[in-house]
Structure formats: structure tokens, C-alpha cells
């Protein structure tokens, strides 16, 4: 009897531990597995917004999955350099990444449409096109050859034109201007006689202080304040013609995604949608606050003169035309992008733009019984 | 031996069935339960956008939870009439609802701040305030006495001012105007000599055709086209001063929410964030398309004259002032709302509004090699 009893106890113990090791089954054996993923990013670890939103995403996925999918987020350079994020996800070294599509324009010229186009869609229009205008499907098609699935990963809203050592009073002031500016906008600046420089955000402060740069764009008040760029130049130019609604991206290794059970796949996808929206809400709140701080620090807000805006527009049109003519996928994407933008431009001129105009001048503080 | 072996087999079988019955454990026994919820809504079943987004939400929750939380969505009148949605969730007859906070202004005057305020925040600003400006916390505080937890549940973007039988050429044309218009905007119209009417969307078509109404607001091109309102009046007035960014809401019975394990609570909350963003993206895409259809049908787009806009603004300011003076919670919420709006108005005038202005006139079709 004794031996058998021991045998029974052992048998029970084994089964019990099998049960308690099951940390999150939802539908059949396949889903009883737990997963640990790595997410590499193009941002400094926990950089405001750009770096914190991917961490929030990872936290949400862990909560929703009851711990069955844990994602460790790496800052730029912690696992791979910022601009090797795409390759790390392609190879599977990391299952996931967060960055911006236009960083990969060397591999995929058309990718620029999935971040931002000078004088193109703003954030609200970009999300309309991504989710309900065919944008996401074209994005997936563009990344498919690399075994990568893209998802929208946030938006900064309209950015700022950037920080300038000298005022821009005419087109002539672009001659020889050394300015850090990414994507198609770099070609536009070059077309106007400037010298576009590609440089990661982390190097901008010293390059502006040393005079290696005459001007730099970065993002907007929230992120520019974090880098202290107001200490490097007196003039802050609005509006970000070059990035009217820069979209970020989550990229996922296709094989890794397909190994997830369907409930975890849904959790990942819906979590990207929440993160995409949450970043724009965060920037909308923080940019407002940061602009006030910058003004208190004496930053001089400037706008480009009309002739400069018009030159930037015609040059932007030409640079997009060149891109579209040079690449079949770019042409296919632009065909969709341009149709959506043509309609949304007309609609938003009648609604969002007209509303901002009509609202101006109303002083809500007057409705407040207690002035604070 | 035989008896003991049988005893062993029974013991094993019991344990095995305990394992296989575990249809979704993630952290302890509490989470092994499945849940069936009812969601009542203030919209016709599957009405474009307003009705389809809650269904998408329910589908996403079921997918993410591996079927552990199933939510059945009811259209207005299927379980309770539209305007009993709040009470049905309060009583627990339904665990969840979808509608708009300003429908409950009789119970909670301050609730209007969580839908829209005439000449107040647009959609992007509203989401900034909700998620990162303290709005959601105030919303939860306002609903707490009713045992209901609110979550943002979508946004239509800037609406249209509505459909008018006659042109509005001056303030005098508001005298005796019978117009369907909800919320604070109704008080504004009354202040200008009009006759505001409260009426559910489903009744608008016949009321306009019978002449019971001289004018009506509803939402925007996407939803107005669905109701065929273009057949009832020739003039379509932009811009929706009365609803510059109408927010919808998910409301959840607090006890029902607290009975969910933490992973399902996270799934529900993140799914509301995705649904909230998805509705604005949907309206951004569909309003563009619908506006084109309406123009093809010969709809005459009109704008109010400047003096009408100014009168609407000062009257809106006064009606908000009255609300704030009459209700302590309204005053507390307005204090937060007004501070956020003051900053975002200034910021968006420099960015979003200035960008729309700078972008105007660019003809992207010129960048397209193949004209279609």
C-alpha cells in the first residue's frame, strides 16, 4: 500500500504542477503557451512620448494577456543601433520594433508615405486613410517582401518647422542653410539651395551649439523642450510643413506573429490601435503645456513669409512627383493617398479649418465664475 | 490493488477534467469564469458608425478574451428605449451601454462637457483632455454616484450646422425658426429667437418633410446621407459650431466591471480606447466620400454670415456661464476644460489651423503620372 500511495501522491503532484504551470490558456493547447518578445526602438529609452508609448503598449499587452505575452522594450543602441531596428525585426533577432517608416526609405522608397509627406495629410487624415482608406493594406503590401507586418504606432500631430539661428525673411536665406531635416523634406530644402543633414535626435543639441547646424527640426514643443533646443537658437518656426502629422510604426516579424494564438494576435493588434491614438492625445496635451514654457523662456515664435511657403509647396510637389515616377509601389500608394487627401482637404477646409477660424477670439475665461 | 487503481484513475480523471475545463485562466480561479454581457445603445441597430463601432468593440473583446467575455449589442428600443440606456446600466439590467453624455443632462448637468460644447474643443483636443488633461478622471467622478464607469466611446469630428429649408442671411432669420438641436446649443438658438426641438434621429426625416421642423442638425455627411436628409431641405450649413467634436461614451455598471478578473478589465478598457479612435478615423474617411455624393445630388453648401457666427459665439459663452454658475460639478469640470482649451486653442491656431491655411491650393493630382 505504502509504495502505491507514494506513487499516487507523485502522480497527483505532477498533474497539479502541470495545471499551475498553465499560466493563461484561453482556447486549446496552442494558446496555453507563454511568449517573451523583444521590441527594439529607434528612440532613446523612455524618451517622452516616442519612447514611453511603446512601453505603455507592452504593459497593456501583458495585462490583457494575463502575463502570457511579455514584451521587453529596448531603447536605441541597447540591443541594436536605432537605424538597424527594421533589420533586427526582419531577421527575428527582435520579434517587434517601434520607429518611423521613412527611416527605411533606402530599402523601401514608398515607405515615406506611411510617416508623412510635406504639405500632405495631418494626423486625423492619416488615421482615416490608414484604417478606412486602404492605407494599412498598402503598408502591409510594401513590407510583405521583408516578412514584416506594420501597424500604425502613434502620431505627433503637426510638428514645428524647427529652430533657427537667424530669421528667415526670404527664399535667399535658405542658400547654404545647414539644416537637419529628414525624409522628402530634405530634398525640398536642397532644391531651395539649403544643405539638408540627416542626424539622430540625440546629436542635435551639440550640433546646434557647435555651429555644425544653422537650424534643425525635431518634433514639437513637448519633445524639443526635452532636448533643450531652445538653448541653442532664438527662433522657433511654425508650422511644420515638412511633417504635418508624422506617423510612427509598430513592426512585427511575421513568423513570430503567426506563432501567437488568435487571442494574443487580437490583443497585439488592438493594443497598437490604442497606442496609436494615445500618442496623439499625449502630444496634444503636452505640446500645449510645453509651448507655454518655451514662451516663458523667451523663445521667439516665427512664421515663414508667404513666398517661402509657396516655394516649399511647389518644391514638395516636385519631390513627390519624382518619388512617384521612380518607383512602382510609390505610384500605387500615392494613387490611394492622393485621392483620399484630395477629398479630406476639401472636407476639412469646410469643417476643421473653418471651425478653428470661427472659434477664434472667444474668451472662455469669461464664463468662469472663479478666476484663477 | 484493483480498488486502489480505480481510485487512482478517478483521481487522475478529476484532475485532468479540472485542467481542460480551465477555459482561459490567467491568474487564479477568479479568471477561469466566462461572462456574458448586454450592451444597450442610443442608436438604431448597426447605424453607420454610431451603431457599428459598439459592435466592433464587442467583437474585439470576444476575440481578445478568447471568448471569455461575450457582449451582445442591442439597438435603441430593442431592450430599452434610447434614452433609458443610462438607467438600464445603472440598475444592472445591462452591464454596459453606448451613447452620448449630454443625453443625461437632466440627471447630470455637467455631463454636457463630456460630449461637446458650442465653440469648444474639437475631436483631437477632446481626446487630449480626456486621456492626458484630467477629463476622464472628472468624468468618472461625475458618474460615480450612479455606480457607472464612463469611457470615451468615439468622436464624429466637427459636425455640420445642419439642413435648412431657407437660407440664413441674417440674425433675423433665426426668429421663430423651428430647429432640432440638442444640448446647450438649443439654449443658444432660443436666445437668438429660435425654437429648439429635441428629437431622436430616426424622426428627423418625416418631421422635416411634414414641415414640423424648418431645420435640423444631425451629425455630418456620412450619417446625414444615411437618413436621406438631403431630400428634405436644399441648404446644408457648415460648420458645426454646436458640435465641434461630439464625443460618444461607453458606460459600464461598476459592480459588473469589478466582477471581471484584471485581464478582462484591461481588455475592456483598451478596447474602448481603440473604438474611440476608430470611430473618428471612420468618420474622417466616410464624411469625405459622403460630401462628394451630396454635392452630386445638388445639395447647396452654405456658411452663416459673420454677424450670425458672432451672435452664436456670445450666446454660447453666456449659456456655458449659466451652466457653470448653476452647478458645482459643472464649475469644477469647466475649470479644467477651460484651462486645457485656452492652451490648445492657442497651440492649434499656430499649428493645425495655420497648416490647413498653408496647405491650401496645392494640387497633388499634378504629382500623379497616371491621371485617373
Automatic annotation (TrEMBL), chains A, B:
GO terms for biological process: transmembrane transport. Residues 1-22 form the signal peptide. GO terms for cellular component: tripartite ATP-independent periplasmic transporter complex. Na(+) binds at residue 218. PROSITE patterns: PROKAR_LIPOPROTEIN. The keyword Signal applies. Pfam families: DctP (PF03480). It comes from the Bacteria. Keywords: Metal-binding, Signal. One of its GO terms (molecular function) is metal ion binding. Substrate binds at residues 159, 180, 217, 243. This is TRAP dicarboxylate transporter, periplasmic subunit P. It comes from Catenovulum agarivorans DS-2.
Amino acid at each position: 500500500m505504502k509504495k502505491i500511495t507514494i506513487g499516487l501522491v507523485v502522480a497527483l503532484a505532477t498533474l497539479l504542477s502541470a495545471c499551475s504551470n498553465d499560466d493563461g490558456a484561453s482556447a486549446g493547447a496552442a494558446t496555453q503557451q507563454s511568449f517573451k518578445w523583444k521590441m527594439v526602438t529607434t528612440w532613446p529609452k523612455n524618451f517622452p512620448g516616442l519612447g514611453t508609448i511603446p512601453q505603455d503598449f507592452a504593459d497593456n499587452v501583458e495585462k490583457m494577456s494575463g502575463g502570457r505575452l511579455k514584451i521587453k522594450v529596448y531603447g536605441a543602441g541597447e540591443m541594436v543601433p536605432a537605424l538597424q531596428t527594421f533589420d533586427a525585426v526582419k531577421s527575428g533577432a527582435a520579434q517587434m520594433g517601434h520607429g518611423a517608416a521613412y527611416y527605411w526609405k533606402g530599402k523601401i522608397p514608398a515607405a515615406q508615405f506611411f510617416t508623412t509627406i510635406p504639405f500632405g495629410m495631418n494626423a486625423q487624415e492619416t488615421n482615416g486613410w490608414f484604417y478606412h482608406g486602404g492605407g494599412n493594406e498598402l503598408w502591409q503590401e510594401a513590407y510583405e517582401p521583408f516578412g514584416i507586418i506594420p501597424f500604425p504606432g502613434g502620431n505627433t500631430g503637426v510638428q514645428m518647422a524647427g529652430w533657427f539661428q537667424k530669421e528667415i525673411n526670404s527664399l535667399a536665406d535658405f542658400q547654404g542653410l545647414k539644416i537637419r531635416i529628414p525624409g522628402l523634406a530634405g530634398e525640398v530644402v536642397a532644391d531651395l539651395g539649403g544643405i539638408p543633414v540627416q542626424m539622430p535626435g540625440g546629436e542635435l543639441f551639440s550640433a546646434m551649439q557647435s555651429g555644425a547646424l544653422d537650424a534643425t527640426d525635431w518634433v514639437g514643443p513637448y519633445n524639443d523642450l526635452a532636448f533643450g533646443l531652445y538653448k541653442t537658437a532664438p527662433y522657433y518656426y511654425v508650422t511644420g510643413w515638412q511633417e504635418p502629422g508624422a506617423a510612427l510604426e509598430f513592426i512585427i516579424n511575421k513568423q513570430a506573429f503567426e506563432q501567437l494564438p488568435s487571442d494574443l494576435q487580437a490583443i497585439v493588434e488592438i493594443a497598437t490601435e490604442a497606442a496609436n491614438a494615445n500618442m496623439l492625445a499625449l502630444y496634444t496635451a503636452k505640446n500645449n503645456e510645453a509651448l507655454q514654457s518655451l514662451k516663458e523662456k523667451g523663445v521667439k515664435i516665427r512664421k515663414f513669409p508667404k513666398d517661402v511657403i509657396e516655394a516649399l509647396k511647389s518644391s514638395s510637389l516636385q519631390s513627390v512627383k519624382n518619388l512617384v515616377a521612380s518607383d512602382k509601389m510609390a505610384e500605387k500608394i500615392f494613387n490611394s493617398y492622393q485621392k483620399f487627401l484630395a477629398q479630406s482637404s476639401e472636407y476639412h477646409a469646410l469643417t476643421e479649418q473653418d471651425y478653428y477660424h470661427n472659434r477664434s477670439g472667444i474668451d472662455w475665461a469669461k464664463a468662469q465664475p472663479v478666476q484663477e
